[in-house]
From TrEMBL:
Keywords: Hydrolase, Metal-binding, Metalloprotease, Protease, Signal, Zinc. Transmembrane segments: none annotated. This is Zinc protease. It comes from Loktanella fryxellensis. Residues 57-203 form the Peptidase M16 N-terminal domain. It comes from the Bacteria. It holds the Pfam family Peptidase_M16. PANTHER family: NARDILYSIN, PROTEIN YHJJ. InterPro entries: Metalloenz_LuxS/M16, Pept_M16_N, Pept_M16_Zn_BS, Peptidase_M16, Peptidase_M16_C. Its cofactor is Zn(2+). Residues 211-395 form the Peptidase M16 C-terminal domain. Belongs to the peptidase M16 family.
């Protein structure tokens, strides 16, 4: 049976509650009492509170359209998988759409669609997230179904066999058939020799083939619990109504008392450059990539990460204005493509990357030498103040435009809270970006550009190109 909800009043329905002197609120449902921490309002439209089972809730108000987005983020990604079970986090993400004790296989998404909404899920190194975008008056139904699969997943051996074939085919399409993706896997494995970031999110194929029902259920039982989850509700909603719904549907789920501390294997100090040549006849054009270990955004300390955002733009953002683009694509025509990239959204150390596709007649070694010269010249020269202001203006505009994307805002908070940041860090980030100076950028570059913490990769179609 597909459930269709058309009772807007449910969203505002009053639940039994009494305000506590401490600011806490208590809800009573049958024989279950749920206590919710005093809500905190941050900025103009963000409210947060915590259920007594440990589930953190963030409400982002945007009343311009009668739409709501619900996202449940688990602090469990591929980097949290047991050794030898790579891909189980992503595998479980697929299995959560199979069914529960009360929902038939596929009924979850069918119900969302029948109510005019959309839903999906995604897995990364540090989290797994599930979301629905629906009319605001359908939020209670979404919470009912999402909370149901948090504790009542019902899967069997038949589901395992079917979905294991699905994820293996997904790997075939996205990775095995893509030489660039295969090369990236090898480079990441070289960059992270002990940390789980060196293992692909989708998993190594030989380990995916062995994933079992018990592997999936074990990961589900320990990680899919309210005290390991963050609920984000964004859109045309009121915080007090969301609190009542969250208490009813999620607050009655018991916390996982045996939830382990989130510890990852530490990466040993890298004391020498690493190099890889990846050869695949399907490579259409040889190229050079290099990644350096780089710091991530940390709670209360986002300055270096912000400076690295500027460094990526200055060095390899626009082909027309960046140092690599101007020097190699226009001034000398050494390359047909250059880039630099950095993302600080990571629980543990991340990477800063640069790349170059040499022009015809330019060898990889010549292209790499030219790339290194641009980096050296950049480090030796002063940064153009006009370039800093241009990037500052661009970043400010991006942050303003991002406020129009309800789901994008929900994703920002969900990713941050599952990667060690706080709501205050998310709120402060736009201002942190605006305060970056040229001196900050140079200091960050000095920190990152250490060849002893780098992996340089050549991607070629045949050995003759590797020169």
């Amino acid at each position: 049976m597909i459930r269709i909800l058309a009772v807007p009043a449910l969203l505002l329905a009053a639940h039994p509650l009494s305000a506590q002197s401490s600011g806490e609120q208590t809800f009573i449902f049958d024989d279950t009492t749920v206590t919710v921490s005093a809500p905190q309002t941050i900025g103009e439209d963000v409210t947060t509170f915590t259920l007594d089972n440990g589930m953190e809730v963030v409400v982002i108000e945007d009343h311009r359209a009668a739409v709501a987005v619900q996202m449940v983020w688990y602090r469990a990604g591929s980097a949290d998988e047991p050794v030898g079970q790579s891909g189980v986090a992503h595998f479980l993400e697929h299995l959560l759409f199979k069914g529960t004790d009360t929902l038939a296989p596929g009924e979850f998404s069918s119900t969302v669609a029948a109510n005019g909404g959309s839903d999906n899920a995604f897995t990364s190194y540090d989290y797994t997230a599930y979301f629905q975008r629906v009319a605001a008056d359908r939020l209670p139904l979404m919470m009912q179904m999402e909370s149901d699969r948090m504790e009542n997943l019902a899967i069997g051996e038949g589901d395992i066999a079917t979905e294991r074939n699905v994820i293996l085919e997904e790997r075939n399409q996205r990775t095995e058939n893509n030489p660039g993706a295969l090369a990236r896997e090898q480079f990441m494995a070289a960059q992270y020799q002990n940390h789980r970031y060196g293992v692909p999110i989708i998993g190594w194929k030989h380990e995916m083939e062995e994933l079992s029902l018990q592997d999936a259920l074990s990961f589900y039982d320990i990680h899919y619990s309210p005290n390991n989850a963050v609920l984000i509700v964004a859109g045309d909603v009121q915080p007090d109504a969301v609190m009542a719904l969250a208490a009813e549907y999620y607050g009655t789920i018991p916390r996982e008392e045996d939830l382990p501390e989130r510890l990852r294997p530490a990466e040993p100090p890298q004391i020498a450059p690493r190099r890889i040549t990846y050869t695949d006849p399907r490579v259409s054009q040889p190229y050079v990539v290099r990644s350096y270990l780089a710091p991530e955004r940390d709670a209360g300390d986002q300055d270096t990460a912000a400076a690295l955002v500027y460094l990526a733009e200055l060095l390899g953002g626009s082909s027309f204005t960046s140092a690599l683009g101007q020097a190699l694509q226009f001034d000398t025509q050494t390359a047909v493509y250059t880039s630099a990239g950095y993302s600080g959204d990571s629980l543990d150390s991340t990477t800063f990357g640069v790349s170059i596709v040499p022009a015809a007649g330019v060898t990889l070694s010549e292209g790499e030498a030219a790339m290194d010269k641009v980096i050296a010249d950049f480090m030796a020269a002063d940064i153009d103040p006009a370039a800093m202001e241009r990037i500052r203006t661009q970043l400010n505009a991006q942050e303003i435009y991002a406020l129009d994307d309800v789901q994008g805002r929900a994703q920002r908070y969900g990713a941050a809270l599952t990667q060690g940041l706080t709501i205050a860090d998310v709120e402060a980030w736009p201002q942190v970006l605006q305060e970056v100076t040229a001196e900050d950028v140079k200091a960050a570059a000095e920190l990152v550009f250490d060849l002893n913490q780098s992996v340089t990769g050549w991607v070629v179609a045949n050995p003759e190109q590797a020169q």
